[in-house]
Amino acid sequence: MSGANRIAGQGRLTPARTARFTFDGKSYEALEGDTVASALLANGVHLVGRSFKYHRPRGIVSAGPEEPNALIDVARDAARRQPNVRATVQEVFDGMKVTSQNRWPSLTFDVGGLNNLMSPFFAAGFYYKTFMWPKAAWEKVYEPVIRRAAGLGTAPTEEDPDHYANRYATCDVLVVGAGVAGLSAALAAAATGARVILCDEQPEVGGALHYDRSVTVDGKEGFVWAQEAAAKLAAMENVTVLSRTTAFGYYNHNFVGLVERVTDHVARPDRKAPRERLWQVRAKRVILATGAIERHMVFGNNDRPGIMLASAARTYLNHFGVAVGKKVAIYTANDSAYEAAFDLKRAGVQIAAIIDSRSKPGDAVLNEARSHGIEVLPGHSVVDTKGHRRVSSITVVRNGGGGKRSIAVDALLTSAGWTPSVHLFSQSRGKVAYNAETGQFLPGTYAQDCLSVGACNGTNGLQATIEEALAAGELMARATGNDGGEKVELRGENAFEWTGGMAGAAEGAGADTNVKAFIDFQNDVCAKDIRLAVREGMHSIEHIKRFTTNGMATDQGKLSNLHGLAIAAETLGREIPKVGLTTFRAPYTPVTFGTIINHSRGDLFDPARKTPMHAWEEAHGALFEDVGNWKRAWYYPRAGETMQEAVDRECRTVRAVAGVFDASTLGKIEVVGPDAAEFLNLMYTNAWDTLKPGRCRYGIMLREDGFVYDDGVVGRIAEDRFHVTTTTGGAPRVMNHMEDYLQTEFPHLKVWLTSTTEQWAVIAVQGPKAREIIAPLVEGIDISNEAFPHMSVREGKICGVPTRLFRMSFTGEAGYEVNVPADYGQAVWEAIWARAETLGACAYGTETMHVLRAEKGYIIVGQDTDGTVTPFDAGLAWAVSKKKTDFVGIRGLKRPDLVKEGRKQLVGLRTKDPKLVLEEGAQIVADPNQPMPMKMLGHVTSAYWSENCGHSIAFALVEGGHSRTGQTLYVPMPDRTVAVEVTDMVFIDKEGARLNG
Amino acid sequence: MRKFSVFAVAREALRGHKGWEPQWVSPEPRKEYDVIIVGGGGHGLGAAYYLAKEHGITNVAVIEKGWLGGGNTGRNTTIIRSNYLYDESMDIYEHSLKLWEGLSQELNYNVMYSPRGVMMLSHNIHDRQSFKRHIHANRLHGIDNEWLTPEQAKDFCPPLDISATARYPINGAALQRRGGTARHDAVAWGYARAASDRGVHIIQNCEVKGIRRGPNGEVTGVETSRGFIGAKKIAVSASGHNSVIMSMADVRVPLHSVPLQALVSEPMKPIFPCVVMSNTVHAYISQSDKGELVIGAGTDQYNSYSQTGGLQIITHTLDAICELFPMFRRVKMMRQWGGITDNTPDRSAIQGVTPVPNLFVNCGWGTGGFKATPGSAHLFAHLIAKGEPHKLASGLTLDRFRTGRLIDEAAAAAVAH
Question: By the CB < 8 Å criterion, does A78 face chain B?
């Protein structure tokens, strides 16, 4: 047998199939199908962790996702390591390394345990009241110490080599939870022909049937029936059954996030398989069958290893074949825990006593207990426990006093009743309602198309659950238009009806006591902490939660929230529903970041956009810069060249000979329709109805507030057709901006917009020899200066393929922008390059483009403007029509502050030291010797070394700049102050002769 | 008010902490107050405190629909910095930062202001231009903000991936060392305690349903879920619902309200020493004293009052976090939530007089109101007491949207060309 506490003949695991794992370096044997928790218990290991604040020794409390204590670090190898894993849900695989957390130097001897001795000092919220003196010590001393002491596991330090997957799915009915209720609902829904997804967080379906052996369905043992039902469902074409799959978030419009754990239980996973898979499910209807979670009893020192939930002990026995102790007591306020005693007794475990805080337990369980010869102590309570690394004895008293006795035990099972799992219901924005009779918060008002069935709906009793679930399954399926199939009928029987339950502090942990009666184990929140919070004026449950940290641990209060609420209500003297629950938030259980992002990493994080000529540019040594999503050729260094040398050479060559530039990233929009010119009149500041077909114009686009939004050259291809260009980064938003206005403000206009950014490759050929380069390649267009002057556009052919050929320039040189269908981009580029290279031209990148346009005084929207600049500020008054009565931004432009004196205006700057290049972003002042804070006049927007000018050049936005020409201003840098002269913005060819050459 | 100190805690430890008194009292409302502040978040509670402390106005009530600090004060990712671009912004955020530096002592409440440094990552030339512009402006205004090389950035924040093969390689960073975080709940509670001690009434679970006006249009009080309460002055600071409250006085404020999401991981031992923000990949992250990674996500694309949000927003943010810090892919998200932010057209706040006599407003702090809390509260108190703005807040007028004198911090971080 693997583990001394495994009992032959108990449980459902196969004794022959073993696996080995280590815990804190020591090797243990487990059975396939074990969780880490069941395997440790089988080996007699109860101490598995330390609590967050007091570092108290802690054991396994539960057998499910609500586990607050047994958090472990699980590693497959150095990079495949995850902290804070619940030992109660992590399946063992052969070779896994498990390490305990939050202890130093070891789990059994933890220096942090000193905190426990200091615990009277460390009451809830104590840190708000101290660590304030001396002032500097918070940052230097107190906080670092607190940070080191806090935290649980150790974060991974290596990149995760595993991969994760994503599935989008739709279905008619999503059923969450595959216990009796979920299976019944799924069977009924599937029978109609509806498309059903059934998911359950456990490896096997069955839910409570894992532990509840006193249940039969259709005459079979419950767990056996469940497996058969799941197999039947899985065989149906219209059903998907997902095990190890947690529904973690219920979002708007029946959108539910599921996480499927695919390989974490496998010793040698197929490396092609994802570790986990995210399912994003849009369901027409949702059925929640999420069950209920047992609560622990709240009494003094209720946190020792060996003290666990009664249902957990049943799971370990009935499913895993593990006895959690040899001499076990039960402390309960409700009937269900009695069945743990019966099961253990049958398996040969000694039951020390059942201590029932109620004076009148249910007759059925009481009689059964007596027939087993088990001592029952009704009206008694456990008020204290002893035992360092494991509970060794409990102190029992009669309620109201007297009858004190100590009972030696090695395990204590507790149950204060059951909390319906309304997490997902509540996430769906449904409103819970309090049932005073059962003391439960249950689904009240639904906000989405879903229904809750079974224990999560407060339904008690097996047959009632089955009938409710069958009806819900059928109802929801039929609501989605599925009306086939026959009615499903099932018959279930259970041995005992369960009654009872309590919330809050038990006997001996009341308001007059000062014992450590834990409600939130992980965060070390005791009943007295809740009372302290109330005493200090925290009367809202949200304040109590935040002040005490109750329910803020990794289990998010699955065990503790109701206890905390009950104690708060009692202390406040209010009814529980008047105090109210804290908000349930996603995720139900923590979800790995990697699963949420799944494929979105590396190249798929944000796809890089590349132009048709990218491969050529790469092959010719270009370095690239990121502009939005685009990779743009930045400059083409030759062997041994620095960036500055390469850019200088490219700048010289373009002005002396010519250069070829990839302008494909510019945004392009085809604006078509009888009202296209009128539409552009409204979208741009300048006039478009006067533009003749075959001509182009530079346009400025404003936002409603009058500030420059985008710019670009627009060519009129025909009366009803414009070829609009935008900035590279602006393409999508300009398209949206236009669509927005077209659909909301100007719906009467007959205009159609099509984004053509990626349909055209654009090759700019600029420089004195530009015409000579392209002339032999162009067909059907007279490109002579007379027939095809600056700012013209023609359609024709180049290299035998269709082109829209623009005569335009962003360098100040005569030039062309050759638009060809993207698929031909590289071939045409290569043909042009072959000519260009022969004639001594160069390829140039964005850096040279920036320098050349600055030499000529052309601005870049987004660099020289920033959303606070009007066209007048930018020196573009000529582009604002004075005749038009309307365009987007015309009213914004007239606001008082947009027309007043002293606005920041774009100017040119020259440094007094011509060699010195300013830093872009540097601030400008009139008096560099003034005290701080200085009055800043503006900032440098662009600055370059101009090889062609032989001095540095810059643009700046300067207060009243247009009237400061000739003034000397100063740029104070950390190490020196740079004197600059305000100039106009055109540094070469002020007359524009070169453009027309 | 009983002073908090290590000695007080020790004394109480000996007697089971039975001697602590309520941190603030919640009396029945009076018939009338000199000032009613609508909204019990950090800004409103702080304004009440400074009204009492610095202006001697103690007949003040803070009226809160739910629980103190339950709005954006208790939902944000607690980042504090002052390295803004424009004078108006620098003035107010630096004023705030200076108050943060002494706030625990001022309030006798440990708000855990932790100047661990706020580092903003630069990924491209445009980022660099924008950050340098900020750095130079900050320096000449007397605010610390420095440029780091990628290697210096990694030294400061070791988990950072500065490899050239990243999708958006890091070409530098701007660091404000005095920036950091604070404990958000403590800010609300600390101000509430200190204000209550000076006689301010803290009234929770009291929803404002209307604003009553006098013959000259001036405000005379508020209709609430607990009846009418008179007021000589009303100051609105109810982030997320400011436009709703202001409309009760027929004032339209230029706000749009959208849910902003955030999330935390499970707690872990210290791994992340500072605050890191990236505009280009849209992420910001720090680690709380409790050990959780605190991660700010984006806003939904549509206006809404739902304090939740879609999974896709969280996904996008975690994409970015895992791109910058690949080792966090195996870390788990523990909790996600949302809060409603009120945003102005220029992304700067509004604090000032309104067209309605004796009605004042403090709103539009968008996604960054927490860091402004002490400064905003301090200047708002001045406005309420004097009836005109303090000079440090004089640029935040409501009127600027009419005249066009915007403080466009969003534009200043303009998009790539």
Answer: no
Instruction: Considering only CA atoms, give the Rg of chain A.
Output: 38
Tens of pLDDT along A642-664? 999 999 999 999 999 999 999 99
Tell whether A22 is within 8 A of chain B (Cβ).
no
Helix, strand, coil percentages (3-state) for chain B, rounded to 5, are: 35, 25, 40
Contact A705 B130 (CB under 8 A): no
* Distance from C-alpha of B210 to C-alpha of B225, rounded to nearest angstrom: 10
Select the residue of B67, B105, B326 nearest A132 (Cβ to Cβ).
B105
Q: Report CB contact under 8 Å: B416, A556.
A: no
Helix intervals (H) in A769-892: 770-774, 825-838, 846-855
CB contacts of A249 in chain B (<8 Å) are: 311, 336
For residue range A305-343, list pLDDT tens digits in order.
Answer: 999 999 999 999 999 999 999 999 999 999 999 999 999
Picking from A58, A65, A61, the residue whose alpha carbon sits closest to that of residue A90 is A65
B57 at interface of A, judged by CB pairs closer than 8 A: no
* C-alpha closest to that of B112 among B80, B76, B157: B80
A597 shares contact with chain B (CB less than 8 Å): yes
Nearest CA among A840, A897, A841 for reference residue A870: A897
Count of beta carbons in the 10 Å neighbourhood of residue A763: 28
Cα–Cα dist A255/A596, whole Å: 15
Whether residue B167 and residue A602 make contact (CB cut-off 8 A), yes or no, is yes
Q: Angle CA(A635)–CA(A639)–CA(A645) in degrees, nearest 5? A: 50
Buried b (16+ CB within 10 A) or exposed e, A421-435: bbbbbbbbbbebebe
What is the distance between the alpha carbons of residues A74 and A87, in angstroms, rounded to a whole number?
9
Q: Strands B172-176 and B146-148, how do they pair? A: antiparallel
Return the residue of A nearest to B269 by Cα.
A151
**Cα gap A611→A822, rounded to integer Å:** 8
Q: Are residues A457 and A420 in contact, defined by beta-carbon separation less than 8 angstroms?
A: yes
Chain-chain contact of B327 with A514 (C-beta, under 8 angstroms): no
Contact state of B168 with A606 under an 8 Å Cβ cutoff: yes
**Quick one: pLDDT at residue B412?**
63
CB-neighbour burial class of residue A662 (10 A; exposed 0-12, middle 13-18, buried 19+): buried
Any CB–CB contact under 8 A between B139 and chain A? Answer: yes
Would the CA dihedral through A579, A585, A587, A590 be positive or negative?
negative
pTM metric for this prediction: 0.96
At residue B308, does pLDDT exceed 90? Answer: no
Q: Do B328 and A596 touch (CB under 8 A)?
A: no
Q: Output the 3-class SS for A543-562.
A: HHHHHHCCCCCCCCCCCCHH
Domains along chain B?
28-109+183-254+346-403 (3.50.50.60), 118-179+257-343 (3.30.9.10)
Q: Domains in chain A, start-ordered, CATH in brackets?
A: 18-130 (3.10.20.440), 164-292+420-493 (3.50.50.60), 297-415 (3.50.50.60), 510-573 (1.10.10), 666-756 (3.30.70.1400)
ipTM: 0.97
A724-775 pLDDT, tens digit each: 999 999 999 999 999 999 999 999 999 999 999 999 999 999 999 999 999 9
Residue B416, pLDDT score: 36
A933 in reach of chain B (CB within 8 A) = yes
Nearest to A151 among B23, B270, B334 (CB): B270
Averaged over A874-894, what is the pLDDT?
Answer: 96
Q: Which residue out of B140, B292, B399 would a mutagenesis test of the A interface target, given it has the greatest number of A Cβ atoms within 10 Å?
A: B140
Return residues 889-928 of A near B (CB < 8 Å).
892, 895-898, 919-923, 925
Nearest CA in chain B to A865: B414
